Amino acid sequence: MSGRAKQLTADTINDNMKNCRYEVRGEIYLAGVKRSKEGKEVINLNVGNPQALGQKPLTFNRQVMALLMAPFLMENEEIIRTFPPDAVARAKLYLKNLNGGLGAYSDSKGNPFIRQEIANFIENETGMPSSADNIFLSNGASECARMLLAALIRGPTDGIMVPIPQYPLYSASIALYGGELVPYYLDEENGWVLDIDELQKSFDAARAKVSKGAYGECGLRGGYMELLNFDDKVIGEIYKVASINLCPNVPGQVALGLMVNPPRIGDPSFELYKEEKASLIESLKRRAIRITNAFNSLEGVLCQPTDGAMYSFPRITLPPAAVNAARERGKAPDVLYCLELLEETGLSCVPGSGFRQLPGTFHLRTTILPPEDLFDKIIEKFSTFHNGFLRRYSGSSGIRAKL
């Protein structure tokens, strides 16, 4: 058997799989994994993974999850007295509505009780009616996006308009399903706002051509989507596709329920919950300001305010020598920058080319999630590396300058 040629090879697999790229876990990430195996320090700034970077989970959520994972604990009076009564009550309520507990399958749309919690949340937040029947739970928001893209894309003449910079989930999924990504560029100089003229230009060009954390429970994958104004038969088809995976993971569904239905005023856990959440949000605000200011203090770096996500996306003006050196190595210039950043500092970021960017510009993406007591160290590493990088490539050729 060992002498037989393999039937499934890189040449025979689906071309769409080969064409999709996901740089968040791409070359830089894999180089970081290798570095870590060698016993060297790696600070993973490539993904929004709060608890991997030291963020503590919200106490109430974990108390409820602990009781659901081990419901026999609620049979021991001595143990149960160590939990606040509202956490115990919530765990019992979920157990009542989870047929078989966390270890059993749910409906393919997700548990009806949790879907109703989400519908109530939507109504309270928007003032608009919401039906649990229109809500699908999933293993993270990415799964919802992929499910809808699979429904939308029929072939290579179907274009999906995507704002640039984009999250690589979209470009990878569109490629995987055989569609065409139609980019339109956000206005970086004005805080990444949408330019309607740019949107129209991209739309017209595409027609001519073809005629996405305070909670941070990334390990508890949970997401939802509400389908409004969809044809009932289309919803049925989407339900059929969701059924192929049987159901989203049930612990993730509960995590969603806890997110949209937290302790209320007067509940025993409310004050601690409020304090933990407020403290976390204020810390994220401070970190966002610090990292933005740090980037903007560096020569040739421009970073818009970090106010819409857990990431900063600074634009870096790279010396011509660095651009030439990258091209000689067959790499995008910001990939070279990020590789050398990792090699010298252990900081693992994502090159802007993985998100697409305006031609001729270079960026990197970094999360703001490391704990505040690490920020001085991270900022110092960024600053020292960047200044050294500029010195090394200060010439006009592709050859690194000698220090």
3D structure, described in words:
This protein has 403 residues and is mainly alpha-helical. 47% of the residues lie in helices and 9% in strands. It is built from 15 helices and eleven strands. A three-stranded antiparallel β-sheet has the order 7-11-10. A two-stranded parallel sheet has the order 1-9. The chain has a two-stranded antiparallel ribbon with strand order 2-5. Helix 14 (333-345) packs across helix 15. The longest helix has 27 residues, at 270-296. The model is unreliable at 398-403 (pLDDT under 50).
Given as residue ranges, the uncertain stretches (5+ residues, pLDDT < 50) are 398-403
Query: Given the C-alpha coordinates, what overall shape results?
Result: globular
Could you tell me how far the N terminus lies from the C terminus, measured between alpha carbons in angstroms? 55 Å
Query: What's the overall average pLDDT, rounded?
Result: 89
Beta strands, count: 11
Largest sheet descriptor: 3 strands, antiparallel
Going across the biggest sheet, name each strand in turn. Answer: 7-11-10
Q: Indicate the structural class.
A: mainly alpha
Evaluate the radius of gyration. 24 Å
Strand proportion, as a percent range, falls in 5-15%
Our count of helices gives: 15
Order of helices and strands: HHEHHHHEHEHEHEHHHEEEHHEEEH
Helix content: 40-55%
In short:
This protein has 403 residues and is mainly alpha-helical. The protein contains 15 helices and 11 strands. The strands form 5 sheets. It has a 3-stranded antiparallel β-sheet with strand order 7-11-10.
